[in-house]
Design goal:
Structural class: mainly alpha
Largest sheet: none
Organism: Gongylonema pulchrum
Strand content: under 5%
Number of strands: 0
Protein name: Spectrin repeat containing, nuclear envelope 2b
Length: 174
């Protein structure tokens, strides 16, 4: 029981550790299940075993939720690479902020390092890239609008069609 409790309290810092963590706790539970059926196992032992198993199930659910967020972030990354319209980038930006908020809802202590890493990737890598693209597009629009009638038509096209292909490539690289 002590070993299982220690594993349940140990922070998970990387995705590669999740499977090992689950496997180790499952092996301990299987061992406890075999030895817990012995008639001499006390009620206190059974109670503690059940309590730790419930904790494990809660933590597994939290891992599943964080994995779903992580998978969604990967999907958004794929959409960012092919995205060239400002409106589409704005939607993806909002989706990323929603995913970052979902990360904060996960308060499981052992997942804090993993959760914070996921949130950091969202806010500081992906959102910053999109915001830089918005800034470049805004600068281009300002430059075009200072020109003449032809410049205003270019601004209209920019707003309608989105950012230049060069800016899109840069978003996908961050």
């Amino acid at each position: 029981l002590r070993e299982k409790k220690e594993l349940l309290e140990k922070p998970i810092t990387a995705w590669v550790d999740v499977e090992t963590w689950i496997r180790a706790i499952t092996e301990i539970e299987n061992y406890l299940q075999i030895h817990g059926t012995i008639a001499s196992a006390s009620d206190e032992f059974q109670y503690e075993r059940q309590r730790l198993q419930e904790q494990f199930m809660e933590k597994k659910r939290a891992v599943g939720m964080l994995q779903a967020i992580h998978d969604s972030v990967e999907l958004v990354k794929g959409k960012l690479v092919g995205s060239s319209r400002l409106a589409q980038l704005a939607e993806l930006h909002a989706e990323l902020h929603c995913l970052a908020s979902q990360c904060l809802e996960l308060s499981e202590p052992v997942l804090v390092p993993l959760r914070d890493g996921c949130r950091e990737e969202i806010l500081h890598s992906l959102c910053v890239s999109i915001e830089q693209t918005f800034s470049r597009a805004e600068q281009q629009i300002k430059e075009f609008s200072m020109a003449d009638e032809a410049g205003l038509q270019l601004v209209s096209v920019k707003l309608k069609d989105g950012v230049s292909a060069g800016a899109v490539g840069e978003v996908g690289q961050h």
